[in-house]
Amino acid sequence: MEVDEILTKLKEMAAGDSALRQRMLNTRNGKNPLSEFCRISTELGLPLYEMDILSAGEDYYAAMRRSTNGGGENSPLLVGEDDYYELFMEELAGL
């Protein structure tokens, strides 16, 4: 299962379970937020590893940079677009 699919499934699960949603949001305050989030995902039967999220975010960001003026110095600044964890947390907070 791809990272995007796992995150979508996790968001669906959190939307139907406020305790799970809060547990995921609480990872933001942990010592190792991404590790704690991945542990919850894996406990739920959706194996997710830190490097999976980091790589997926970086790959997405690189693709976006290439699609906007070839990724040169005139490309628009895409702040934070490579942090899938933070993007997910923002979406989760809005549920």
Amount of beta strand: under 5%
Overall outline:
globular
Biggest sheet record: none
Mean pLDDT: 82
Distance between the termini: 24 Å
Structural class: mainly alpha
Query: Tally of extended strands?
Result: 0
One letter per element, helices H and strands E, the order comes to HHHHH
Poorly predicted runs = 78-82
Count of helical stretches: 5
Radius of gyration: 15 Å
Helix content: 55-70%
Model description:
By secondary structure, the protein is mainly alpha-helical. Helix content is 64%, strand content 0%. The chain contains five helices and no strands. The chain has helices at 3-15, 18-26, 33-43, 50-67, 84-93. Helix 1 crosses helix 2 (18-26). It is globular and about 35 Å long. The protein starts with a helix and ends with a helix. The model is unreliable at 78-82 (pLDDT under 50).
Give me a quick take on this structure.
With 95 residues, the chain is an all-alpha fold. Helix content is 64%, strand content 0%. The protein has five helices and no strands.
Features:
95 residues, mainly alpha, 64% helix, globular
